[in-house]
Amino acid sequence: MKHEAWFQCSDACEGRWELTEIIYRCPSCDGLLEVKHDVEALKGRSPAAWMSLFDRRYMRTSWPYGSGVWGKKEMVYPQLNDDNVVSIYEGGTNLFWAERLGESIGLEDLWIKQSGNGHTGSFKDLGITVLVSAVKEIMSRGSDIKAVVCASTGDTSASVSAYCAAAGIPSVVLLPRNKVSQAQLIQPISNGSLTLALDTDFDGCMALVQQLSKDKRFYLANSVNPLRIEGQKTVSIEMVQQFDWEVPDWVIVPGGNLGNITAIGLGFLMMHDLGIIQKLPRLVCAQAEGANPLYRSYLTGFEEIEPVVAKSTLATAIQIGNPVSITRAIPILRQFNGIVEQASEAELAEASARADRNGLFSCPQTGVALAALLKLTVDGTIQPHERVIVVSTANGLKFVDFKVGYHSNELDGMDSKLANTPVELPAHYDSVVKAIESTV
Fold first, then answer.
1. pLDDT tens digits for 368-421?
2. Is residue 153 part of a domain?
């Protein structure tokens, strides 16, 4: 069964380009591109047959189909030569039943999709595996690509550097100096990337990378490149698969550059078009209050779209004031009767700490999504019986400074309500017993 995919203008221009072409925007209108699939060809396999195929492949050992992304290859990049797949067996992350957290806020069916439990500690691996595999395919055809380049708030650079290192392809990452955690900074350094720490914010780094990408020797890895979104959309398929192909009522996603909310929506839409699912969930995009252009647009019914100067936020990975994919995300949110919510610094920190007390170790971006969950539960938008999935986008171990600052009560402008510090005692049995009895 032959499946095909291609680049096409998101604004319905007539242009169509092969996925091996080095192109990021429509030459006619400068609109964003998207990957289009031959849906009629995909319908040649029944919904039951797709589900059976994906279940047989899932987390198995047949290369490369055991990957959570490449197990859905026909719906991602069907023409790619298997020899050019660059995979570290991404995806397959835990869907954690947050039973105690749900009970504490009045929800019966709360789940956390632990997308940060992948190889580099964030969901970015799902898209970067596709992008770097595409670069390897392009290079196998003789293209003179010298390096993969990206701007990053930390997680993209980690993923790009790891996958490029695995493929033997040079990578260059541009980071805002002193605005990413040490755990994030050390990842591209360790993987051998040329790591450039610039005196600007993410949006400034992004502007420079877009200039670099005009030279076809430097392949753009940011989410303006729609190949990223193709990999990230598989998280939607995987979540439904983990529920034996049942669709949740709500999916809540942190939003920065807005590629992920777009991708998750596209994943659900593809399953719906193919008859694999019969309904769509409602989507919520959660933004930090200091970097909230989508939230501001939502308040106008998406009639106004204006970038903002992103303020400092604990959720550094979504500290983006001019998101590249905002024009992709808005149509998705409209199709899904979506909601955009925001969280203050205190709200995201307390939500993260509350989740940690119930078995998680959540990053600050996930804290933003959890804070949105709390607001929507309190105001009755989300009902107690509904199934809710919060997408956790990164591993909390990448943000140890955030955790230490919270529990040391040293985060600016807030009182850490759930701070928990070590109790220092002499090494005496009686002292230890007394401490335990006074607490437990």
1. 999 999 999 999 999 999 999 999 999 999 999 999 999 999 999 899 999 999
2. no
Helices (H), 168-313: 182-190, 202-212, 226-232, 234-242, 259-273, 293-299
In the block, residue with structure tokens 């790891």: 162
Q: Residues near 326 by Cβ (< 8 Å), separated by ≥ 6? A: 258, 293, 294, 297, 305
DSSP-assigned states of every residue in 6-54: EEEETT--S-EE-TTS---B-TTT-PBEEEEE-HHHHTTS-HHHHHHHH
**174: which strand partners?**
151, 196
Report the C-alpha gap between 189 and 181 in whole angstroms.
13
Specify the number of domains making up the chain: 1
Domain span at residue 339 reads: 95-121+229-407
User: Taking the complete model, does pTM exceed 0.85, yes or no?
Assistant: yes
Question: What is the residue type of 168?
Answer: G
Place of tokens 């989508």: 294
In which region does residue 31 sit, left (phi positive, over 0), alpha (psi from -120 to 50) or beta (all else)? beta
What is the length of the chain? Answer: 440
> Tokens 């928990």 identify what position?
420
The 3-state DSSP class for residue 226 equals helix
Angle in degrees, CA 241, 244, 248, rounded to 5: 75
Token pair 């009902």 is found at 383
